Amino acid sequence: MSRSVFTLPFLLIAVVAGLAQAPKKLPELKPEEIIAKHVASIGTPEAIGAAKSRILVGQARLISRVGYIGQLEGPAQFASAGDNVLLAAVFNSNEYPYEKAAFNGKEVSVGRPNGGSSELGDFLKSNKVVLKEGFFGGVLSTAWPLLSKENKLKIESAGTAEMGGRSFYKLKVTGGGTGGLGIVLFFDAENFHHVATEYTYTIPVRIPSGNNPRPESDLYGTTTTTGMANSKPTYVTLTERFSNFAKSGDLVMPLTYVIDFTFQDSNTSRALNWEMRFKDVYLNQDLGVDVFKVS
Question: What is the pLDDT of residues 9-57, one digit of tens each?
Fold first, then answer.
């Protein structure tokens, strides 16, 4: 990927910005009503319970628009069984060979062969609740928390929104170890498909102690001038988007999965986009626990 010297002002991902427009008047629904309609949009309780594991296979594309400019493509897979989750996208690049993130029911693991990690991996490593509580991958995952009432999450209404002539219900998630991570879920008001999750995270202004210089790179791989602290907070937004819903077996799942990542501090901006288009879906495959650990 070639280096770009321009930066852009920090903006939320287009889909979320669009969702923030003034919404049409929708019937008021309690969070539990939205969740019940959403779960019904996936399948019957019997069908959901019968799918003990899921594997989706397709193609991935990574596009970097700010910071480093470039594009990579390769095979992708999303797998889950119970609380276990794995995302793997393999790229033909020595610099960026693959993107992997997993949770094996106990530990979150991310990484690359050289021991490093990407912006996405760093975010998931710093906010383990995204994988641990089953948010990652939405309804693609058997761990999707809205399928179970056995969690410590607090879910409340966050109003409604509109984009492209379609209306959406929003639910805000707190508790369950979310800490300072903001989580908002978006549901289509017509069919109650879960179409997006927005995660927002703010890192306070960093002031070096004494005369110690600021490290040249931080957790998110952002390089800054040595000795200079951020004069403004660091803003990180991760948005998962889901579309192209289709029936696989007795379940309705999105076959297009997009992850948008933006990062901005006072010195650096990043904008990355992973798009996965799945073609094949396999249910109830035998998956060992070793599958769900990045090594």
Answer: 333 344 444 444 444 689 999 999 999 999 999 999 999 999 999 999 9
Domain count, the chain: 1
Residue 237: give the domain boundaries.
Answer: 2-292
Residue type (1 letter), 78: F
Q: What is the mean pLDDT of residues 258-270?
A: 87
CATH code of 58's domain:
2.50.20
